[in-house]
Amino acid sequence: xxxxxxxxxxxxxxxxxxxxxxxxxxxxxxxxxxxxxxxxxxxxxxxxxxxxxxxxxxxxxxxxxxxxxxxxxxxxxxxxxxxxxxxxxxxxxxxxxxxxxxxxxxxxxxxxxxxxxxxxxxxxxxxxxxxxxxxxxxxxxxxxxxxxxxxxxxxxxxxxxxxxxxxxxxxxxxxxxxxxxxxxxxxxxxxxxxxxxxxxxxxxxxxxxxxxxxxxxxxxxxxxxxxxxxxxxxxxxxxxxxxxxxxxxxxxxxxxxxxxxxxxxxxxxxxxxxxxxxxxxxxxxxxxxxxxxxxxxxxxxxxxxxxxxxxxxxxxxxxxxxxxxxxxxxxxxxxxxxxxxxxxxxxxxxxxxxxxxxxxxxxxxxxxxxxxxxxxxxxxxxxxxxxxxxxx
Length: 392
What we know:
Number of strands: 16
Structural class: alpha/beta
CATH architecture of the largest domain: Alpha-Beta Barrel
CATH superfamily of the largest domain: Metal-dependent hydrolases
Strand content: 15-25%
Distance between the termini: 9 Å
Radius of gyration: 21 Å
CATH topology of the largest domain: TIM Barrel
Number of helices: 14
């Protein structure tokens, strides 16, 4: 059997896995028992295949994707994108949602994903929107699809409304999500969000501080998590305003996030497209402080976010593409293999799943490609395929 390369960061017990160090990878001949990859013997010099766990998409919007063709020449800031996408909802029939979401899911799976969390716009009422039902049906064909209800924190400031939503999410295995961006009712809404999640045993996922400026939602979420001793996974997407915080403020917020067990999800494609807009070329980067967060002990994951909709006319459902853009915009330096956890093991944990490390993994949970090093892998220059095609 040919040699394989395994990024060391994706091996839970690298000292016991075997193989020979090769940059930020281990190289060797795979040892397989009971359809699991359990180790490496010394390399034989053949051209290696790279082996990684299946990818995780921690944040996307399957209800919105692939609508750009009917939106006209959309461009602008977050508020403009929200309005344009809202106007498009007159087109959201069952067939329309199913067709677009199926394309998004198919693309994600073709790009190596086995676990995906999609946010779903909930609307103003208690009853689930049509897209929630359609995507739940599609989830029957993909057990790894999670749905998070995306609701403005102002609506969740109503305790009865929040609890009714919580009951529905508990029945449909959903995640309680909230949009937090400088709302006057933020504290009340967060109090009800955490109480509802505790009452119904729900995970939490926030769109928070999705803009440059003095927003303080992330710290408020961390404070509430600590005050309530919340134990379920909390994922906070965007957190762009950390770019405008002083070093002292950042250290305080990051410490709270670490103690609260919060994971931050950076979403470079959409944030770079929408944030920091001026009349000309932007001179600000609409991305959170990835390197500083991770150095402070806050888990960082990376998502694709919007794909071909009012929030971003480009993008694709491919975590490797999102990671590649993050590497460029946030100056993520080699060893790049260390950042693969943001779209595999750390991302799985953020979604409440046990991380899949390469050592001991079922071959069906692994992917392979022709990459000679981790930069090749992240660049997307190679195609991911089921590892069983390589290892059996």
